[in-house]
Specification:
Blueprint: H1 7-36, E1 43-48, E2 51-54, H2 60-84, H3 88-106, H4 112-126, H5 128-131, H6 137-140, H7 151-160, H8 179-190, H9 202-208, H10 214-217, H11 228-237, E3 239-241, E4 244-246, H12 255-270
Antiparallel strand pairs: 1-2, 3-4
Helix pairs in contact: 1-2, 4-12, 7-8, 11-12
């Protein structure tokens, strides 16, 4: 590392050089005066053990040096250090960014089992306190994640509605479909919207669009249901639930970690 590339080091060196030069010049000047000059002027009335001092003006060199030091100090305090200074928080953020980049690169192509194992660790720390270790929502206190990604999960949403995700289209009321109609739509969505679209899906198309993609972010993209991307969307948005608000995890988890959590949560409903 080139220590001269650091602005603070460079400023400190410049200041040190200036101080040394001024010290040598001023000290040399006054040492010379001490050898050749004669004491002149009016003595002050005060004296200490017979030693007095003259009422001479403050040496201009002292005054200019003091003024220059004050200007330098004010500039360094107001602009020099805040702009160029070392920051422990900044160093920490740089280290985190470097580690995150290495982590993302290392696990970019992690297999399914690795993702689920990684996701389980994150889930137990970040999600289990509200959703329970088993993901069952602790007696309906939070969302039951054991049905996410399955037709049962879609049916549950159709029955209860969906609230708190903050989509521009607003909240989805419950009971838009029931009976066999709800089951047909649930099976269709849980199957990745493959095959013939049931007529009953028209009740959903008004917000999600005929293709189910959410009309450009106006509503949830149903084509991602049953994939880690669906879970990642909820993590990034946060959600108002029964026992409070789930904060957004945007920026708290890396893309690989979001994918891992999604893989683990979806494995709960599939018994993997």
């Amino acid at each position: 590392m080139n220590w001269l590339s650091d602005n603070i080091n460079l400023l400190a060196l410049i200041a040190a050089v200036v101080i040394v030069v001024l010290t040598v010049l001023i000290a040399g000047k006054y040492i010379k005066q001490m050898k050749t000059d004669k004491s002149t002027g009016e003595l002050a009335e005060e004296n200490w053990d017979g030693i007095g001092e003259y009422k001479n003006e403050l040496p201009s060199g002292w005054a200019y040096t003091f003024l220059g030091t004050m200007i330098w100090g004010m500039w360094y305090f107001i602009a020099g250090y805040p702009v160029n200074g070392y920051s422990q928080i900044g160093e920490y953020n740089e280290e985190v960014a470097t580690h995150t980049q290495m982590f993302e690169s290392k696990w970019a192509n992690a297999d399914k089992q690795t993702l689920q194992e990684m996701g389980e660790g994150i889930y137990l720390v970040q999600c289990a306190p509200c959703h329970g270790i088993a993901g069952d929502g602790i007696g309906a206190k939070a969302a039951d994640l054991t049905v996410w990604g399955s037709a049962a999960g879609v049916l549950d949403t159709i029955k209860k509605g969906s609230k708190g995700l903050g989509y521009p289209m607003g909240e989805m009321p419950g009971g838009l479909l029931s009976g066999e109609a709800a089951k047909k739509v649930a099976a269709y969505v849980a199957n990745g919207m493959k095959g013939a679209q049931p007529e009953e899906f028209a009740a959903c198309a008004g917000c999600h669009g005929a293709d189910g993609k959410g009309m450009g972010g106006m509503a949830p993209d149903l084509t991602t249901y049953g994939t880690p991307a669906f879970v990642a969307d909820v993590l990034n948005r946060g959600k108002k639930g029964y026992i409070g608000t789930m904060v957004s995890f945007k920026g708290r988890l890396t893309p690989v970690q979001e994918k891992a959590v999604g893989a683990y949560i979806l494995s709960l409903s599939r018994g993997e």
